[in-house]
Amino acid sequence: MKAQRSHGSFVALNNPLSDIEKNPKPQTLETMKSKLKFSMAAAAAMAASGTFAQAIGSSCGCPDVSARTTVTLDPTNAPTVLDAQGNLIPASYTMTCNNLYILNDRFYVGAGKDLYIEPGTVIKAPNIGGGNAAALIISRDGQIWANGSASCPIIFTSTADGLDGNYPVTNRGKWGGVILLGRAYNNVRSTDVGSVSITTGAGSGDGVGLIEGLLNGDQRNFYGNPTGTWINNDNSGVLRYVSIRHGGEKLGTNNEINGLTMGSVGSGTTIENVEVIGNLDDCFEFFGGTVNAKYLIGMHSDDDGLDWDQGYSGKIQFYYGLQGPENNAGVLAQGDNGLELDSDDNSTNFTNGGLRSTAEIWNATVFARTDGSNVAPNPNPANTAGDEAIEAKERTFGSVNNSIFVNFRSGLNLAGAVGANNTTDFWQAGNFNVKNCTFVNCASPLRINGANVAAGADFTKFTVTDKNVILASGLVDATFDVATLTSNNVIDRVNPVPAAGTATTDLKVPVSEPFYSNAPFRGAFEPGKAPWTQGWTLAADIGSDLSAVAGCTGDLNKDGQVNATDFGLFVNVFNTNCY
Q1: Contact yes or no for 338/387 (Cβ under 8 A)
Q2: How far is CA 343 from the centre of its chain?
Q3: Cα–Cα distances in Å, from 207 out to 140, 203, 210, 231, 348?
Q4: 34 Cβ partners below 8 Å, 6+ apart?
């Protein structure tokens, strides 16, 4: 029996997943502690034995990956599942963790259809090439229920990935990605210029956009609704504890698929604990929409970590970004801006009834790469090729709060990139705000329209009024490196967790917004506590950060080894009090 649906709500009738699986009850603290302890112990044991790939999903009853039945999803191999155009045929389809799914083409979940994915399920896709890419697309009025867990995440990756932690993060663009399309607000106009916004055929016009990377004229690739009819509480389903790896396949010049693309996705959708790693384009991009997102990880991409555009107005809390490794040859530069925040690339939209992006980010920690071009030891403030921690342009509104940015050429860059669309109007008027953030080792903490600003009213607003802190070093361990580009052998881990008692802030999240968690500190991680990346992320599996050594009590400097350096740290404080 088909599930009854409404925008912003979902009523389940005889669904493959129970209500508890879709919307699990909050776990007790003891349960979460137990699961975390198991995850850490299991990860350590699996790393030592080299059998990580076979253990995925074992704690929720899934068989070894090597023992799973391969199910290839394309019209030829699964004609009862997908039609010749890649549309899901049945009203609902469930991916179970006893199978290994190969996504051999584009898989569309169309209007009125549901895709369920069990915890611990693995979906792989090949590099197709020739202007095509395997991708999972949830079209308008379709829904996905990918409800993983910390011990049993759902993984999307390349067919070349052995899932043993050894497939290098520099393998990017090996398949497409995951795309969610909804009917919430955007500021797209039919007169927009660019492949992202030109729409033709039935259903096109103001308020309806063509999502980046897909074909024009096909309504399955459209997002939004005609102007004035948006459904802002639209519900595209659930992505929870999902890892999306090695995507972003190139379809043409400057045309790749993001790791997770969201076009006009509504606030009825749940996006929590989602990792995008090794993507050729942005890790996360929001084209309009009202969806909120929490606990996001964007690492090792070849473009921005997190990008909003076209009037996005949601809320984001706890984002962790990491660029690099850099190969120093310029071919795989790995990374662009930490955050790229736009209202829209077409300035005409602002005088044609279009609204600006008004989204908020709270508690982000983002590291730039450390290749010497935009960072210490000898950063060049005049270097225009460096990366920006926050690239704010096209008159975006909104705010970035209680966050930490490290190693970027510029901290906040206010860019007027479209005609006379300069930035000082919305910046000085308080329509876009960056408050209570810490910028570490950023050669140019504030830039406006291409010029460094180190004094005057704008700098006073940045440092005194908005309480942003500029540090040469410290607060977090900011360096990261791998041994070679053909391995994930991490020889220098970042530590994104500030020491206990540091990075506090007096700027509180809005108490009127139940979405936000109380987090009276700067950055994505509570100072002195284990990071929330443990147990379910590739970042933790390969040991790129503190997650890999959090349980090693003798490793005082958290470099992954217990040695003379740790002993020296201990000796220097011997016989002193810990309070």
Answers
A1: yes
A2: 19
A3: 14, 10, 10, 11, 14
A4: none
**pTM for the whole structure:** 0.84
Distances (CA, A) of 303 to 155, 277, 317, 398: 22, 12, 21, 22
Residue identified by tokens 């030592």 is: 48
* pLDDT tens digits, 137-185: 999 999 999 999 999 999 999 999 999 888 998 899 999 999 999 999 9
10 Å Cβ neighbour count for 564? Answer: 9
φ/ψ of residue 309, rounded to 5: -160, 170
- Cα maximum dimension of the chain: 77
Tokens 């609704």: give the residue: 225
Residue ranges of E strands in 457-505: 469-471, 481-482, 490-492
What's the token pair of residue 331? 């071919």
CA distance 558 to 549: 6
Q: Give the amino acid at 277.
A: I
Domain parsing of the chain, residue ranges: 1-183+231-276, 292-542
Q: How many CB atoms lie within 10 A of CB 355?
A: 17
Distance (Å, whole) CA 141 – CA 138: 8
Nearest Cα neighbor of 413 from 404, 423, 399 is 423
